[in-house]
Amino acid sequence: MNHVTVEVDMLIVIIVIGVVIALSVWSNRLGIAPPLILMVVGVGVSYFLSIPQINLEIPVIEPEWILAVILPPLLYAAAIAIPTVDLRRDFAAVGGLAVVLVIVSAVVLGFIFHWLIPGVSLPLGIAIGAILSPTDAAATTIVRRLGVPHRVGLILQGESLLNDATALVLLRSAIVAAGAVADSFSLWDAVGDFLWAALAAAVIGILVGWLGVQVRRIVRSPAPATAISLIVPFVAWLPAEVVHASGLVAAVAAGLTAAHLGPKHMDARQRLAERSNWHTMEFLLEGAVFLLMGLELRTLVNDVYADHETIGVALGLAGIGFLVVLILRSGYLAIVLQGTKARTERQNARRDRWRAADPQEREARMRARIERARPAVQAQFENHFDALMTRFR
Q1: Dist CA 278 CA 77 (whole Å)
Q2: Which residue pairs from 309-316 have beta carbons closer than 8 angstroms and sit at least 24 positions apart in sequence?
């Protein structure tokens, strides 16, 4: 019996992978974001399986499996693919969208749901808001297909990576606060829990990411080095969860650290092998997640019907949440664009002053910059030269 069960499970995995590949190729030809196609097909399949002749119930995957097995490698793969130079340049914009906007949106939605839904406490409302506030990969993919500038696309990519971590940390803190006794609830305790979950996880992730790069620097061979990188997000996730921090933030921090240090300490073969493998992993995991979301929709709708005998209220609350998030995001983006415009004008003014300066003064400034950068460039060259000589010995 167990042998048959294993064969069935293996067949399901093969079918899911095949469907993800086929629908992704098809969606690219149609010019539609693959997550949308995968969700629509998943919904269609789930309702097809509900006809009386079949009547197969799709089981809901436990959240622990998503948080511990699927999200850490998925976020790590997205983190190592982001150009760290561009991320540093636009870190203020990315941080504002991924942290400030998510927190503000979740808190505003929390007050609204607390006011509209009887029996929903403010922490529980904020937990619901944390689920609704971040954008996802589908939105980023759609916007990029609309032909937005490359820099805007990178900002949105960085936001979609970091805002998930922010929302999940906020969700965790809000759930802990919601489970506290009313008399023992403290806003400062909730804020402290949020800061600890984020900062401790970031420190752990940076250390694990640095350690992973150093180990792969010693190994050198692409295959073992790539195998080591496959366990890095889980190595970052585990100690963070043990100390009650966010394992997902740790996985993101480890990925960003690896992306920053990789070009300095690993050769091109290792980086190409790692990027190729993680890109494939991200493609399969992301596709499977959106397909499973569509498949599980019917089960979730049935649960709502069983509890409330209608989904009208749920759809109304979802519509209110959508409008609130849309208004908050539009207002915040207007402020950000005004700030970006002012910063660009200041940069243009400095450039004009630079061009109007005396040629000898410009040459002196350039020489000073070169002298300041010379030690770092020389050290990096010596490291690459030593690695090259070691390979030929």
Answers
A1: 5
A2: none
For residue 304, give both structure tokens.
């709502």
Scanning the structure block, which residue is given the tokens 């629908």?
A: 23
- 75, 161 in Cβ contact below 8 A? yes
Single-letter code of the amino acid located at 49: L
- Cα–Cα distance measured from residue 138 to residue 35, given in angstroms and rounded to the nearest whole number: 6
Euclidean distance between CA atoms 200 and 204, whole angstroms: 6
* Cβ burial, residue 136 (10 Å; 0-12/13-18/19+): middle
How many Å apart are CA 187 and CA 126, to the nearest integer? Answer: 13
Whether residue 253 contacts residue 201, with contact meaning beta carbons closer than 8 Å, is answered with yes
For the CA atoms of 36, 101, 128, 65, the dihedral, rounded to the nearest 10 degrees, stands at 60
Q: Is 247 exposed, middle or buried (0-12, 13-18, 19+ CB in 10 A)?
A: buried
Amino acid at 234: F
The CA-atom distances, in angstroms, between 116 and each of 126, 305, 316, 317, 325 are: 13, 20, 11, 9, 16
Largest CA distance in the chain: 86
pLDDT for residue 51: 58
Q: Are 183 and 121 in contact (CB under 8 A)?
A: no
How many Å apart are CA 392 and CA 335, to the nearest integer?
Answer: 56
Closest CA to 274 of 213, 211, 207, 203: 213
pLDDT digits 0-9 by tens, 127-172 = 888 888 887 655 665 665 655 566 666 777 777 777 877 887 888 7
Check the CA dihedral 109-113-115-120 and report its sign: negative
The answer for residues whose C-beta is within 8 angstroms of residue 23's C-beta and 6 or more apart is 34, 37, 38, 41, 287, 291
From CA 131, how far away is CA 317, in angstroms rounded? Answer: 13
112 is written with which tokens?
A: 């609204």
Condensed to tens digits (0 to 9), the pLDDT of residues 96-135 reads 888 888 888 888 998 998 898 888 888 888 888 888 888 7
Q: Which residues contact 329 (CB under 8 A, 6 or more apart)?
A: 101, 105
**335-353 average pLDDT score:** 75
The closest of 138, 202, 111 to 165, measured between CA atoms, is: 202
